[in-house]
Amino acid sequence: xxxxxxxxxxxxxxxxxxxxxxxxxxxxxxxxxxxxxxxxxxxxxxxxxxxxxxxxxxxxx
Length: 61
What we know:
Layout: H1 9-29, E1 36-45, E2 48-58
Antiparallel strand pairs: 1-2
């Protein structure tokens, strides 16, 4: 059985923050001359986003 959850205002705010973080990450990583890794990690508990972690690792060539 699939359960759907009604989104609350704090959860919607967190989803907006995830979208903003992803947009910024893509903008930073897609610049010419960028070599490395970029990552976005979400910590989720009971279907709710608790923490957002953004990491950019640049490689020096």
